[in-house]
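Hey, I was hoping to borrow your eyes for a little while. A protein chain has come my way and I'm curious about its shape. Take your time with it, there's no hurry, and the full record follows here:
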Amino acid sequence: MTGPGLRHHGDADVGPGLLDFAVNVRSSVPPPWLRERLVAAIDRLGPYPTAADDLRARAAVAHRHGRRPEEVLVLAGSTEAFTLLASLRPRRPVVVHPGFTEAEAALTAAGLPVTRVVTRESDGHRFDAASVPDDADLVVVGNPTNPTGVLHPAAQLTRLLRPERVVLVDEAFADAIPREPDSLAGCRHGGLLVLRSLTKTWALAGLRAGYVLGSPDLLARLAAARPHWPVGTLVLEAVAACSHPDAVAEARRDAVRLAFDRCMQVAALRRVPDVHVLPGRAPFVLLRLPPGTGARVREGLRSAGVAVRRCDSFPGLGPDHLRVAVRPAAQVAVLVAALDGLLAAARADAR
């Protein structure tokens, strides 16, 4: 039985009435202050978005990262960047796996041959820049990587930079880690693109809002094939609002709380026999179950009202890997109890 394709994502694993550990969005709704900003912006939906609206959003992002507005491109969701990569017409694109699969899916759909560099669990899924072919002219890597949660050292990632090569670092979860260590958002290099998402922290999956940082020349190449008005007024408002210093400070406080919740969740999961918790720092946890039990456990969890992310759609992982989002303690207790019971039943059946 084959697993799902590259375009399988956590939302496909969720269903009505299920406790959601499959999707990494932190909350079900945006915070009140953000909702108020978006509601107020509805009165501006009549006119087309203007260059001034776009500049205001880019200036807010630039201030947040110590960049210039011309080094910011606002996106209709961070995943738009992966589709735009085809505009660069790379000859040897490389995608680091296990990682977010939309990059490979988009490049393949554009008819570009993708080379995979797969990290190994035996090495803690740590990335080694030397594993990338010398002739690669596009490299896509996540930091922290989804679904492993591994945070790669910035020094390892900057080793990828060289003339005639574009490196896209997907930092969709960087603001979920206290102090954003090893972020390259403030790094200026002609071939570097740094991708950020607003979806996870601010519960904006339905709005599709993100941005990419890079040199003006590279961003112009990336955006060359975009239609006019590529992002709407609400997206521009959300990007400006979430880049305000008050919002950044709130995200930093939330990252500290999230790190504590992650530690508690990891400790609870490690107490379940036969569950191997892989190391990581992202707002999700990668699990490996005993061989041959993954599909049964995942289906059993669903029957118990718990949705988890299957991981056999990630190159380098298999059906016995599961990803679970970091959630409050009461929800974690439900997951742990169900997981413990299902694995106990699997052990009994194996006797």
Notes: The chain has two domains: 10-24+248-350, 32-243. The radius of gyration is 20 Å. The first helix runs from residue 32 to 41. The domain at 32-243 is CATH 3.40.640.10 (Aspartate Aminotransferase; domain 2).
